[in-house]
Specification:
four-stranded parallel β-sheet; binds D-glutamic acid
Length: 269
Amino acid sequence: MAVGIFDSGLGGLTVLDAVQKRLPDVPFIYYGDNANTPYGVRDADDIFRLTKAAVEHLWDNGCDLVILACNTASAAALRRMQEGKVPHGKRVLGVFVPLIEALTERQWGDNSPPREVAIKHVALFATPATVSSRAFQRELAFRAIGVDVEAQACGGVVDAIEEGDMILAEALVRSHVDALKRKMPSPDAAVLGCTHYPLVADVFQKALGADVKVFSQADLVAESLADYLGRRPDMIGGGTSAFLTSGKPEKVSSRATQFLRREITFTAA
Ligand code: DGL
């Protein structure tokens, strides 16, 4: 029917926007679990249960391919879902791998042994659940050696963004960057490991300084999805794009419209 894009709330819209621009003819169904956001303060079992229910909802609505446009869900639930019972003809993919491939200068799907890369000191900004899962460090270790990762759990940022309190979100970002810099004074690169954070990317960049390369996922995921669908056109499906939420459609539509600066209308999932 369409490609499903899932996030705990509004953050996945940063990915949706990029994939829609890269693949304008592909229909997408976006599902935000706004009733249960944020996921980043929940434990792994809870995140798995919520993510599984949401992905199954998208599968049941005809999406053969679902992208977890949420690092927290990718970190806590993706592998468990892929190793469990995935219905025939259905797929679920996450957002970590394209980011790590870019960071480690790899082409899509290059599975050669880990090697030294130019970037040596990486600051990772993510939700508490993503940081404690160590999924980013694990995926990185498969591909690169000698990279020092300092992770900063950015408590409160997702809640502030979901509530539309951008002044609070920006203040929290500055204080999380300060905390990171006390542990790693001169990172070469920073990873925005939460799909909500591109909405405050300029605040991260300013606080980190212009010489720190900031990686965010939206465009990287869009390129990797274009590559995947080029090889698997059968996963595109037909139908029309839609926005679904488990939260209050009016409130979610108004925030989404504010973030993407175009009219977005959510309906109840
Ligand atoms: N956008 C989700 C992520 O990429 C945010 C998670 C949350 O709900 O805390 O991690």
